[in-house]
Design brief:
By secondary structure, the protein is mainly beta. About 0% of the residues lie in helices and about 40% in strands. The chain is built from no helices and 18 strands. The structure holds calcium ion (CA) (3 copies).
Length: about 240
Amino acid sequence: MLGKETGVGKFTDWGTFNNADGTITINTNGITGKIEAFTPEGAAGVITNEHNSLGVKGKSNEIDNGEKLIISFDTEGACMRNIRIGFDSMYGNYIPGSGPDARTTWEATYKGSMARNGEFQADMNNSDGDGNNATSNFVIPGDKTDKIVISTYSPTDVHSNMVVRFLEFELSLCCGEPDDVEPSEPSEPECDPTVTTDVILGKETGVGKFEDWGTINEDGTLTINNSGITGTITAYTPTGE
Ligand SMILES: [Ca+2]
Ligand SMILES: [Ca+2]
Ligand SMILES: [Ca+2]
């Protein structure tokens, strides 16, 4: 989990805050990412620690109308799954039908596609069971995500703001292209490029035998089997037989 669902929340619950540019660096078991803030004009902004959560420096230290917080991973193939995201400080202005009628907006993507997005308002149904309208959390749908954009939209641009309290997810390295993951299609096998095995077939010096390569078969081929990853060595005559 990045951030803290309850209690005192600090920058260090998310990663390393960089004073030089106002971003946060994430490093989870060597899989790296960053959190960036943007102003309503799209310029780089500064992340704040407000309400035990993350906000964007500007009109207020929370995420105000048009400001953005972007959480992304840049390690090749890194993806988040089963994401739950929590918000705080969505008070009266976020009540549906209120004057400002403000809402929190979110967009999730993987490698720039598979876009999912939505918006929601104050937690009037007590969906998280804490009895507090201003706090809520929800699960981002979809299989893979490497980037999440959070913003606030208020049609009347009345002072309305919220903060991101926490982000809970499973993080792994994923295989396959973005369009391989339609729910109706078989999922790609998991891979871990960080796991490698050194293999030598044959013998560099000394007595070399078939067994140094694999298993010789009746048809004269050799079967290779390295930790369950299999292959074949086949000989052909000049005529291709
Ligand atoms: Ca702000
Ligand atoms: Ca607020
Ligand atoms: Ca709530």
